[in-house]
Amino acid sequence: MKKNIVVLGTQWGDEGKGKIVDLLTDRSDAVARFQGGHNAGHTLIINGHKTVLHLVPSGILREGVDCYIGNGVVVEPEALLTEIAGLEKAKVDVKSRLKISRAAPIIMPYHIVLDQLRERAKGGKAIGTTGRGIGPAYEDKVARRGIRFGDLLEPQRLKEKLTETLEYHNFVIEHYFKETPLDFDEVYQKALKHGEQLKSMSADVAAQLHRLQSEGKSILLEGAQGSLLDIDHGTYPFVTSSNTTAGAASTGTGLGVTDIDYVLGITKAYTTRVGSGPFPTELFDDDGKMLAKNGVEFGATTGRPRRCGWLDLVALKRAIQMNGVTGICVTKLDVLDTFENIKVCTGYKVGNEVFEDFPASAEAWENIQPIYESMDGWMSKTQGMTSDKDLPTQAKALIEKIESYTGSPVHMISTGPDRNENIIIQNPFE
Questions:
Q1: Which one from 14, 140, 312, 334 is the annotated catalytic residue?
Q2: What local confidence, expressed as pLDDT, does residue 195 receive?
Q3: Which among 273, 250, 286 has a CA at the least distance from the CA of 15?
Q4: What average pLDDT does the segment 53-61 reach?
Q5: Distance of alpha carbon 212 from alpha carbon 208, whole angstroms
Q6: Phi, psi for residue 345 in degrees, rounded to 5
Q7: 25 phi/psi in degrees, rounded to 5
Q8: Catalytic site residue 42?
Q9: In what order do the strands lie in the sheet with 98-101?
Q10: How many CA atoms lie within 13 A of 364 on its CB side?
Q11: Is the pLDDT of residue 165 over 90?
Q12: Cα separation of 133 and 416, whole Å?
């Protein structure tokens, strides 16, 4: 029986989704990315070898698994070509297995220029974007002036669309930011070249996914970033430019919502965040430093150190609700192995008022203080464990606390970075 599974992050990203997608692809026939761009980094460690993916779906390291980039993903052709070349150098067959939606928006050079100029102009109020053109590309998509992958394959159509779009963006670059405008011929010729290089991977992804379904095949839908960075439901305006929640799995691929059988929500046993924005449980003490050190908390895409803090159960519960999470996968449990005491946030306080709900905007977070519940640490090694029976009592207590507070069962626990370091309580495919 077929089963389509969505794998997504329930925090601010960096939860370890790539490893879990890779793990589950031994039971799936295809993996499809449904949103985001190359601002996401999915790190996979297999037999000690590290691979970081940005646009190519994490199923690419499993032979025989088809990979799709859906229409909800913004594609920067040069970044994709570089990634493909790196994988092929490592003897991974990519081009015969990767398909790109012709409706996927393309990140053009002017998007990257605008992204970086805007962040620079904001100074201390910068959002903390990766500066890779993601936001401006999504803006063009919504404004209906975007260049799509299919356009790169049609020289005349591309010329017409690019003439109008580049004129608009060059006006802003030259007259608002006082910078040198981009040369039309240079941008046009580069886009044509990229289209030629990627043409063999062009596809109607929605049609192909529905065909797989009709054949009884299983599809794994891979999200990027995390739910708290969702453009509608996250800590706005300190969010990404796409919908990172489960609904985007349908809009970003063309599958129907009733085609999804299971939603797996990935959460770290603590919390991290990259870039600016609210973070109530952030730690600035030795515990925060130990989380960062034990968890090797540096961004896979940017290399930026991640901000670290205790697990925020209030935020996690909201993420689980808005995604309709079927089961939770707790990652990096082993990072807590050396802590005598562990805290979890079970509420927020503003002045004398207590809240158990997630604020609607970044402004509402300004004076929030976390309310913590302390738990005993286990002070023993859990890394590499593969059975929940072996877990220390205190580690089991943390898992039970997550389940009781969020109302969602923990079905998987990652106990280390390698593909095989996991406790599978219930396999999503069963």
A1: 14
A2: 98
A3: 273
A4: 89
A5: 6
A6: -85, 125
A7: -70, -10
A8: yes
A9: 202-203, 98-101, 66-69, 30-33, 219-222, 5-9, 262-268, 327-331, 410-414, 422-424
A10: 10
A11: yes
A12: 33
Give dist(CA 44, CA 420) in Å, integer: 11
Amino acid present at 226: G
User: What is the rounded CA–CA span in Å between residue 245 and residue 9?
Assistant: 8
Closest to 337 in 3D by CA, of 365, 379, 274, 296: 379
Domains of the chain: 5-100+203-262 (3.40.440.10), 109-198 (1.10.300.10), 267-424 (3.90.170.10)
Contact 410, 403 (CB under 8 A): yes
User: Model confidence over 279-294: pLDDT tens digits?
Assistant: 999 999 999 999 999 9
Phi, psi for residue 32 in degrees, rounded to 5: -125, 125
Look at residue 394 and tell me whether its pLDDT is greater than 90. Answer: yes
- What tokens were used for 150? 């299919």
Encoded amino acid at 393, one letter: T
Q: Is 418 a catalytic residue?
A: no
Token pair of 264 as six digits: 């797996």
The region of weakest confidence among 1-10, 38-47, 195-204, 258-267 is 38-47
How would residue 302 be classed by pLDDT, with cut points 50, 70 and 90?
Answer: low
Higher pLDDT, 51 or 97: 97
C-alpha count within 13 angstroms, C-beta hemisphere, residue 17: 33
Token reading at 147: 């260049």
Confidence of residue 2 (pLDDT cuts 50, 70, 90): low
Record the tokens describing residue 85, joined without a space: 């070349």
Instruction: Tell me what the mean pLDDT of segment 120-130 comes to.
Output: 69
HEC letters along the chain: CCCCEEEEECCCCCCCHHHHHHHHHHHCCEEEECCECCCCCEEEEECCEEEEECCCCHHHHCCCCEEEECCCECECHHHHHHHHHHHHHCCCCCCCCEEEECCCEECCHHHHHHHHHHHHHHHHHCCCCCCCCHHHHHHHHHCCCCCEHHHHHCHHHHHHHHHHHHHHHHHHHHHHCCCCCCCHHHHHHHHHHHHHHHHHHEECHHHHHHHHHHCCCCEEEECCCCHHHCCCCCCCCCCCCCCCCCHHHHHCCCCCHHHCCEEEEEEECCEEECCCCCCCCECCCHHHHHHHHHHCCECCCCCCECEEECEEHHHHHHHHHHHCCCEEEEECHHHHCCCCEEEEEEEEEECCEEECCCCCCHHHHCCCEEEEEEEECCCCCCCCCCCHHHCCHHHHHHHHHHHHHHCCCEEEEECCCECCCEEECCCCCC
**Candidate list 38, 42, 54, 411, residue with the active-site label:** 42
Average pLDDT, the chain: 92
